[in-house]
Amino acid sequence: MEVAERGVSCKRKRDDSAISTAMAASSHSSPSSNGYEIVTITRWLDGWSSSVIDSNNNNSISSSTNETNDILPLVDLRTYEEFDETHLHTDDATPLIVNLPLETLLSGERSCELPPRHVEFAILVPSAYTDLFLSCNSQCSIHNLFFASKSSATQQSRKPWLVRQVILESEDLWNEEGILNYIKRNTYASYESKGDALSFRALPRLWKPDPLVSSGILPLLKDWISKT
């Protein structure tokens, strides 16, 4: 058992070292060919300068940027259990943080909740996927989901999502200096024990309804319901 525990500990240290190396490299280089940079939580909170998109490449970035630094919405790809145990949180819901587990996106269960493809956002990659993500392997489901220019199901061309920043989960991530106020930890026994409450909580949205729906159809629908 002791040998096994040492093995797990060594692997975690190697993983954290690889992530630290990747973040250090990204801080001194241009964003990847897919248009994203690997960042710490602090760097994400510093905001992202929206860049001019090269018309010849839907997801590339030119050197010209705007002066404003907006904190990007964050899609946390970890499981419901992992998110409810420890997650980023702000009292005023700014920036927007949404938990969309990777498996629910791959299955299509919650893929409709991703933002429109013209919206820039960040993702938090679960620790179980960080090695594969860093390798940019064709078998990486996260790369295939967000950056592929062709649908794996239909083989038709598609526009990749505009993921601009990537946070890689590691043991050190949640102990990063200066972010204590942004971290919420739950101490209840298990996710299952709170299943009903969690199922019906209000969830933030990464998209807005069409103006015709929100200002035209919805008021009419509410009026009709109130009269029935």
Keywords:
228 residues; single chain; 32% helix; alpha/beta; two-stranded antiparallel ribbon; globular; five-stranded parallel beta sheet
Spell out the blueprint of helices and strands:
Layout: H1 2-26, E1 37-39, H2 41-45, E2 48-53, E3 61-70, E4 74-76, H3 80-85, E5 86-88, E6 97-99, H4 102-106, E7 120-125, H5 130-135, H6 141-146, E8 162-168, E9 183-185, H7 195-199, H8 211-226
Parallel strand pairs: 1-8, 4-6, 4-7, 7-8
Antiparallel strand pairs: 2-3, 5-9
3D structure, described in words:
The chain has 8 helices and 9 strands. With 228 residues, the chain is α/β, with parallel strands linked by helices. The protein has a 5-stranded parallel sheet with strand order 1-8-7-4-6. A two-stranded antiparallel sheet has the order 2-3. A hairpin with a 7-residue loop joins strand 2 and strand 3 (61-70). The longest helix is centred in the N-terminal third of the chain and has 25 residues, at 2-26. The termini are far apart. Residues 1-14, 24-29, 52-67 and 193-200 have low confidence and may be disordered.
Question: In percent, how helical is the residue content?
Answer: 25-40%
Query: How widely separated are the two ends?
Result: 66 Å
If helices are DSSP runs of H or I spanning 4 or more residues, what is the number of helices? 8
- The class by helix and strand makeup works out as alpha/beta
Overall radius of gyration: 20 Å
Number of strands: 9
- What general outline do the C-alpha atoms trace? globular
Q: How would you write the strand order of the largest sheet?
A: 1-8-7-4-6
* Strand residue content: 15-25%
Largest sheet: 5 strands, parallel
Mean of residue pLDDT values:
76
pLDDT under 50 segments (min length 5)?
1-14, 24-29, 52-67, 193-200
Please write the string of helix (H) and strand (E) elements: HEHEEEHEEHEHHEEHH
